[in-house]
Specification:
Helix content is 72%, strand content 11%. The protein is mainly alpha-helical.
């Protein structure tokens, strides 16, 4: 299965190109694989509608974890 290395190279190239475009737009800072979001609302405008769905689910899961931790702390 020699296609794996080639596949990862394509993914890395696509990510680098996307990060470069977002950096040029002033939305992120990208250097050596480290990404800093500079403009959250700008980043959200650049994403597809699935971002809102994923964000809502993440918030739900994190609130459940926080609730469970608070319950443990009270005991």
């Amino acid at each position: 299965m020699n296609w794996w290395p080639a596949c990862w190279v394509c993914v890395a190239k696509a990510l680098t190109e996307a990060a470069g475009k977002l950096q040029q737009a002033g939305i992120i800072s990208y250097r050596r694989g480290h990404i800093t979001v500079l403009d959250h609302s700008g980043l959200e405008r650049q994403t597809c509608e699935c971002y809102a769905v994923v964000r809502k689910e993440l918030d739900r899961l994190l609130s459940d974890v926080k609730y469970r931790q608070e319950s443990v702390d009270e005991q």
